[in-house]
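Dataset card, provenance and construction

Sequences and ligand SMILES were collected as paired inputs. For each pair, a complete structure of the chain with the small molecule in place was predicted and serialized as C-alpha cells. The example below shows a pair involving fe (ii) ion. Curators did not alter the output after generation; any descriptive sentences attached to a record were derived from the structure itself.
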Amino acid sequence: MTTVSEIMGKLPFPPDKKKPKHIRKNEYIDSIYPPAAPEFSDLTRIIVSTDRLFLGTYQLAPGGSFNPPDLHPGDETYYILNGTLTQQNAVNGQVIRAYEGESIWMPREAWHKAFNFENEILRILFLIAPKAWDEKIPPDDYPHGDDIKEYKGKHNSKYDVLPPLSKPTRIGTTDDIGRWPIDGPEGRKPPQLFYRIREEDKLLNIFGPDNPMLIKFFVSNDVMHMGEFILPAGGKGPRLSEVDSHNGDCILFVIDGPVTVYLPDTQEAFIVEEEDTMFIPEGTRYQLMNFTAKPIKAIFGIAPRL
Ligand SMILES: [Fe+2]
C-alpha cells in the first residue's frame, strides 16, 4: 500500500535521481481521492509526481462526483479519455462540460468539482504543475455543500456578482505558444474561470521541416504545456520526429501506439504501449518513432518550460 503523501515529489524518482523511465500502466499507483472519504471519492491512478509536475488518471462511475471540491497550488489541465465531464467551480458558479478528446484548463487555487451525469464511465488524464497539494490532502478549508455557488445555493449572497462574460474567440498562431488559451497570470486573476478546449480550440503547430510532426496544444503557459504529438506513418525507414528536449520534466501518455521513444545520446529505445507513460526528465534529448501503419498519438505534459 502506497499513500499519496509517500510518493509526492519522488515518483518515479526524487529530484536528484531523475532518469528516463517507461512506466507501464500496471505500475501506476492505485488510490482513491480524497483518501479519507471513500463515500465521495474518485478512483485515482497516480503516474508521476516530481518537483515539476503531477500526472495521473481518475475515474467516476455514472452518477458519481467527488467531495469536497478540490483545489491546488498549481494549474491543472484535464484531457478527457472517456465519457463526458461536467465541472463546477464551487466559488464563482461556473459549470462547463467537456467531451472525449477535449481538454479543460483550471487556474491554480480555483475550487473544482467533477460530476458524471452520463451512462458511461468518465476517465480523465490530469496534469498539475508545479505542485498538486501542500500539507493537507485535500485542503480542508473548502466550501462545504451549502457553500457552493449554484442554482438556489443557500449562501450565494456571500460571493461576488460577476458581470456578463463573453466566450473567448481567438485565432491561434505560433506566437500563442506560451499564452494559450489565455496568458497564465491573466487567467489566474479572479474570477478564475475554467476554459474548455474543444478540438477546434487546440493550438495547432508543426515541428520539423524535414520530418513534420503535428502538435496540438491544449494549454501552453508560464507553468505548463499539455497537448498532443501526432506522428504519421510512412517513410523510407520508420517515421522519426526531430530531436527535442525541454527545460522541464516531460511525460508522454500514449493514446494511439505503440510510440517508440528513442534517446539519441544513450541509443536507448522504449516501446511505449497505449495507456503507458514515458517519463523524460529535464534536458533529456528524445525522438518519437513510428514503426506502425497508422498515425501514432501521445499526450504530452511539460513543466515548466518547453
Ligand atoms: Fe484537481
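Derived descriptions for this record:
The chain has a mean pLDDT of 94.
The first strand starts at residue 21 and ends at 23.
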